[in-house]
Write a structure and sequence with these properties.
The structure is a single chain. The chain is an alpha+beta fold. The chain is 24% helix and 31% strand. It has helices at residues 6-15, 75-85, 104-108, 132-143, 174-183, 198-204, 222-238, 333-347, and strands at residues 19-21, 24-26, 30-38, 47-55, 58-67, 93-99, 150-155, 161-169, 187-190, 209-215, 255-264, 269-273, 280-281, 286-291, 299-302, 307-313, 317-318, 323-330. The protein has a 5-stranded mixed β-barrel with strand order 8-9-11-18-16. Helix 2 (75-85) crosses helix 7 (222-238) and helix 5 packs across helix 7. The radius of gyration is 21 Å and the shape is globular. The mean pLDDT is 90. Bound molecules: zinc ion (ZN). The site of zinc ion has 3 residues, from loops.
């Protein structure tokens, strides 16, 4: 079957207002929860992936928003909960398909992985006769991705690693770049990896897709949640799914990273952090200090290049070679540093009323 991409795909979605997912038809102007059956537990308990379909009265783009593909990454679950309660959806044009927990087995186990230790986000597009991960990936591709025109996948850093709110996408594609800029986080990372991720599989299906990262696994981070919710709403406005906001956008103009790399521990020991997430560092600056638990000489961890810290570990116990700091390089580090500060001020819990989002 030929892949229908870009504007042709959107035009097709505009014509057909009823959407069918998992054998359930969702009429225009209705909102339905659909439970897609997945592999039951070995106790014989049935298990399903919950999907909320909000179908606007008027046809338009079909956007999926997914979270917890890594089962311990929870900020996205909360972003989707808040999105589904948002009053703006009353004026929705097109269709929102929200999947707050893709990796249900992982969420139950509070684990990034599936019970077979596979990474779901390395198992796309999957196969109906493949591993457990491959089967879930295949189901998601058939029932969600194949029926959408655009997608946003919500992630966090790993356990003990915090990410600055950022969007990763194939920014060489103009449609994807437009959405990434609309999302409104200070940092965009350009990547078009061949890694078996949902993003790669969606791209191959002709669907522009963003990956949002913010905060760390097994934690709620309020700034990351607010930045993510605001980002999804801004993308929906940019797509014409929601009316433009009457307020001037508070979102900073994002800056694109040319490259990024992890700074690793030069030796094992106890780490004291010295650089903060989002801060601008110059080549040779001290990011942290590693020492033995009792006493002994400090070993400095220095920045190998000038850049912005977009992630770091929170765990002070490190082994030699462990990834400690994620440094992104930009054309203008000063601009990014200012925008990171603006985002944190704008979205700080004490300073924001929900209506601003
Ligand atoms: Zn993830």
């Amino acid at each position: 079957m030929p892949v229908v991409t870009g504007p042709a795909r959107v035009a097709k979605a505009e014509q057909s207002n009823t959407i069918d997912i998992g054998g359930t038809s969702v009429a225009p102007g209705s909102c339905v929860t659909i439970n897609l059956p997945i592999a039951r537990l070995y106790t014989y308990e049935n298990l399903s992936m919950p999907v909320e379909v909000v179908n606007g009265r008027r046809g338009g783009p079909r956007l999926f928003v997914s979270a917890a593909i890594h089962g311990d990454e929870l900020n996205g679950v909360e972003i989707i909960r808040r999105l589904l309660c948002h009053s703006a959806l009353k004026r929705l044009r097109g269709t929102l398909i929200a999947v707050p927990v893709v990796n249900v087995h992982g969420l139950l186990n509070r684990s990034r992985y599936l019970p077979d230790r596979r990474d779901l986000n390395r198992s796309f597009p999957g196969s109906g006769r493949g591993s457990l991960a491959g089967r879930i990936a295949d189901l998601f591709m058939r029932e969600i991705v194949a029926k959408c025109t655009h997608g946003i996948d919500l992630h966090t850093g790993a356990v003990h690693r915090e990410n600055l709110p950022q969007v990763r996408a194939n920014l060489d594609d103009p449609d994807t770049l437009h959405l990434a800029e609309a999302f409104g986080v200070p940092v965009l990372l350009n990547s078009d990896l061949r890694d078996g991720s949902l993003r790669e599989a969606a791209m191959e299906s002709g669907i522009p897709m963003l990956l949002y990262e913010g905060g760390e696994a097994l934690r709620f981070d309020e700034v990351s949640i607010r930045a993510g919710l605001r980002g999804v709403l801004q993308v929906m406005r940019a797509l014409g799914m929601l009316p433009a906001s009457r307020r001037a956008s508070l979102a900073p103009k994002p800056v694109m990273a040319r490259s990024s790399s992890w700074v690793r521990a030069p030796q094992s020991g106890v780490l004291r952090l010295q650089a903060m997430l989002g801060s601008r560092v110059a080549r040779g600056d001290t990011l942290g200090v590693i020492a033995a638990p009792l006493a002994g000489a400090d070993c400095k961890v220095v920045a190998p290049a000038t850049g912005i810290l977009i992630a770091h570990t929170h765990l002070p116990l490190v082994h030699e070679g462990e990834a400690l700091f994620h440094l992104a390089r930009f054309e203008s580090n000063t601009a990014v540093a200012e925008q990171v500060e603006a985002l944190q001020e704008t979205l700080a819990p004490a300073q924001l009323e929900d209506e601003v989002i």
